[in-house]
Specification:
The protein is α+β, with helices and mostly antiparallel strands. 32% of the residues lie in helices and 32% in strands. It is built from three helices and eight strands; from the N terminus they run E-E-E-E-H-E-H-E-E-E-H. The chain has helices spanning 45-60, 75-85, 126-145; strands spanning 2-6, 10-12, 20-29, 32-40, 65-69, 96-99, 105-110, 119-123. Strands 1, 2, 3 and 4 form a four-stranded antiparallel beta sheet that branches. Strand 7 (105-110) and strand 8 form a beta hairpin. The chain is globular and about 45 Å long.
Length: 146
């Protein structure tokens, strides 16, 4: 069973987010808490709708991943298109950010050289991360040779 919880709010005074209250939001799966995002107090309506969609993705795939942005909710569909079109990554060595120690997730994100098609997935499933690493390896090699 998956549930979503918010932790105690904190005040964020940074220049990037503005002066606002933030609510750390977590997915709870198998009794383990996984960080999802910080919700801003008084989020815009479009952001609330986006967050609800991300929760729906997690519920639909047993909490394995969701996407922050990009055309494809499924990272393998995106990678298949990149392969089909022969595209390359702008920063092939910076596609993965491992936050398993602090938040229980790996971020897979980047952009392409040939078109503006930024993507960002938050992945909680270790096996899925390894499958993506395997699928992305030839694209990384092609990108380095560019």
């Amino acid at each position: 069973m998956i549930e979503f919880i918010e932790k105690e709010r904190y005040y964020n005074d940074s220049a990037f987010t503005g002066q606002c209250w933030m609510y750390p939001t977590f997915m709870v799966k198998g009794g383990i808490e996984y960080f999802m995002w910080n919700r801003r107090e008084l989020d815009d309506s479009w952001k609330i709708k986006e967050r609800e969609g991300q929760k729906a993705e997690l519920l639909a795939n047993d909490g394995s991943h969701f996407h922050f942005h990009g055309i494809y909710a499924n990272p393998f569909e995106m990678l298949a298109e990149i392969e089909r079109r022969g595209h390359t990554f702008t920063e092939p060595d910076n596609l993965f950010v491992d936050c398993r120690e602090t938040g229980g997730f790996v971020d897979f994100h980047g952009n392409r050289n040939e078109v503006s098609a930024a993507f960002h997935y938050r992945i909680y499933d270790k096996a899925l991360v390894e499958r993506i690493r395997t699928a992305v390896a030839p694209i990384i090699e092609r990108s380095r040779k560019r």
